[in-house]
Automatic annotation (TrEMBL):
Domain of life: Bacteria
Signal peptide (UniProt feature, chain positions): 1-20
Originating organism: Henriciella pelagia
PROSITE patterns: PROKAR_LIPOPROTEIN
Keywords: Signal
Protein name: Lipoprotein
Amino acid sequence: MTRKLTLPMFVTGVASLAMLGGCVIVDADEHVRADWDLDRSYGTLKGADVSANTVMARVSSNGCTTKDFIGTDVRKTGEDRFSVGFFREKEDYCRAYLPEGVALTWSFSELGIPDGAEVKIRNKVSN
């Protein structure tokens, strides 16, 4: 015996499959940069300063950016010389208007750099 598929039967079947399929919830508050791509684009900083065994980077922010959002890439370039590149690891989805961005500061010890070393910033700096 052959049955003909009618529109009400099709809609009922699709609805049944949807109910059995369950639900997937995605937490869109934080997006972590994938580690596997190794494409660390050193974005343009709004400002940078190296002084008193600290490194300051002024970065764009929508109101929530902290040091946890910014990755650092420290490389030894000589006897007592290092370079530091900053890259964004998490997006800032807040909605504040901060045209000057935020200034984030790392100590040399946080970056694994000995006190008194010469440090160069690899990022471009522009307002």
